[in-house]
Each structure stands twice: as structure tokens, then as C-alpha cells.
Amino acid sequence: MAKRNKAAYMISAVAEQYNLHPQTLRMYEREGLLKPSRSDGNTRLYTDDDIERLEVILQLTRELGVNLAGVEIILNMREKMEEMQRQIEQFVASLNSEIAQRVRHPAPGPESQALVPVISVSSLVRVETEVAPPESKPRRKKLTL
Q1: Would you state the pLDDT for residue 41?
Q2: Residue pLDDT, tens place only, 94-129
Q3: Taken in order 64, 70, 76, 81, is the CA torsion positive or negative?
Q4: Helices in 59-143 by DSSP H: which ranges?
Q5: What's CA 37's distance to the chain center, in Å?
Q6: DSSP label at 119?
Q7: At what angle do helices 22-30 and 48-58 cross, to 10 degrees?
């Protein structure tokens, strides 16, 4: 569909544009799939966001054969995915900001200098062998430093 202006559309205009009966739009509202605003005279007014949502509903029902229960599930999943995407973008922006700040102002100490090799825990354990009588095997004892 072409770019829309910042307007609100009455139910009759939307129904005609999308070849729907107005009762179908009312049913979508009853089912919670659409939530048009209301004028002072209680007339349903469909915004550009409502129209975009209607187009998704019509694509799912007309082209893909999804029933209204399935449409509701898909729309809810889309909303959750969009929210998760926003949260990820906020996290990445925050992370980038933190990294940029640390690059500009490194903290004093060894962690701001060259990378320090990691010493494994196994290298901190020393194994000693006790001398035992010849008839028995030597015993091993672990000591931690």
C-alpha cells in the first residue's frame, strides 16, 4: 500500500478500501485483533498502525488460510519479538557505550595493560610422593598452594 498520511479512517472507508464488510472489522475488534480509537461521537477511527495490523490479519487469513485464533497467536508472538528486538538493541547500545567509555578512559591496573596469561588451577596443585616401605606402593598426596 502507498505511504499514508497522519490521518484516521472511518470504518466505512477502511471496509471499502479492503473489500470487507464493516461487520468483519467489528468482529476483529471484538476478538481483540484490532483496537481502533473512538471519536467523541463514538465512531471507530482507524490509524495507520491499525491499517498495517489489518493488512497483516488479511494476509494471514486470505493468503495463508490462518484462522482467527492462529492470527491472535501470531500477532502476539510478533509483538513479543518486536519487544525483544528493542531490548536487544538497547542492550547493544549500552554495551557499545560502555566499551567506548572504557577505551577512552581505561581503569588503572594490570587489566588495562597487556593481557595477562591465565594460570590454570591444575598448575597450582603440587603432587608430592611420600617414601613408603618397599613392600607397598608409593602414596600420592595433593597439596594446594
Answers
A1: 92
A2: 999 988 888 888 777 655 555 555 555 554 555 555
A3: negative
A4: 68-104
A5: 28
A6: P
A7: 90
How buried is residue 57: exposed, middle or buried, by Cβ count under 10 Å (0-12/13-18/19+)? buried
How many residues does this entry show for the chain?
145
Residue 25 exposed, middle or buried by CB count within 10 Å (0-12, 13-18, 19+): buried
Q: Which helix (H) or strand (E) holds 38?
A: strand 37-38
CB 44 within 8 A of CB 11: yes
Q: What is the pLDDT of residues 50-64, one digit of tens each?
A: 999 999 999 999 999
Cα dihedral 19, 23, 26, 32 in deg (nearest 10): -80
Question: What pTM, to 2 d.p., does this model score?
Answer: 0.63
**pLDDT, position 1:** 47
